[in-house]
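Q: Okay, next protein. This is GroES-like protein from Aspergillus fijiensis CBS 313.89. I've checked the sequence twice, so it should be correct. Can you predict the 3D structure?
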Amino acid sequence: MQKAIVIDEVGKPAISINRPIPQAGPSELLLRVTATSLNPADQKTRDEGLFFKQSFQVLGHELAGEVIGIGKEAGPAKFQLGDHIFAQGNFIPGQVLTDSGALQQYAVVNASFAAKVQSAGLTDEEATTIPVCAIASFVALFHSTGMALPIPPASTPASQATSEFLDTAILIIGGGSNCGRFAIQFAKQVGFGRIITTASARNEIELKQLGATHIIDRHAGYEANIQQIRDITGDSLVHVFDTVNNAQEQKLGLAVLSNTKKGCLITLNRIPEVRFSAAEIGPKTAGYEHKMTFGFSALYPEISKLFWERVASWVKEGAMRPLPFSTIQGLEPTTVNKILDRYRDGQGQKVVINVRT
């Protein structure tokens, strides 16, 4: 048996239970979990039953650990016993996350959605900050349900950035968010000449290091933000990724899209049920797309495999860096609930849980 942190009833605090140690299926790896981290989705799972309504779900979608079991179709060409890997839990909305949930001592993951920690030159703790937020931005920018941009190769020297986008701008709303940080880095790899982001001014130095060319102070206000963005892009902006806003707050992303060229706003959150009027966002005479995407490797296996095949190289070469984080020790439900409470209250920062026993 092993210790796990689970949701036993939606709307109630996470609790600790003992549950069986899973076995690796044919395409899976069995891990002795060493580190995991939490995300806003875990808070919404606890409080709202996000993506599922059934009782009992192991929390956590991203994890790192030591390989102690390999399914017959999962290696040994790619992974060997003793390797330390990082991965995203094998989860599809509507299913229950149990054996591949991260907040337990042993978990199984799909070998297609994993990469070696050593190949990336990271610690287990650093690596576990990558999967959820990086995949969310990856799907939003590169999958057909998102912007469908060309996926960067495993190795892209800066001098060989895709020239197709050198005269093109992209706006990333919420660049200081965890997903926003990865989106900026992906936009740089694609080769966008202007990478604009809304963020707090205190994040300007970090976000420019990641690749942003223009920082718009989100605290300046709605009208000021629109004017500042249009001063940079004119009426040419057709790529906007909103990493943070819900429903009605997504108006900014639509308002700054070109009024004469067909643009696209991608979001990670729910879209308003009623479309904004032309008086609110401009005429948009060529139309626009407004789409929500889901950041789950298992939901889009073909494109996700490309991410997991390339992510270690991106990190190793400096094209992607892990998120800033703090660390706590052990699988303790009281501490986990406090972290989730901070996400609920809009104060969440990345926290890695060291699970080593």
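A: Here is a summary of the prediction. The first strand starts at residue 2 and ends at 7. The first helix runs from residue 40 to 48.
Q: Noted. On to the next one.
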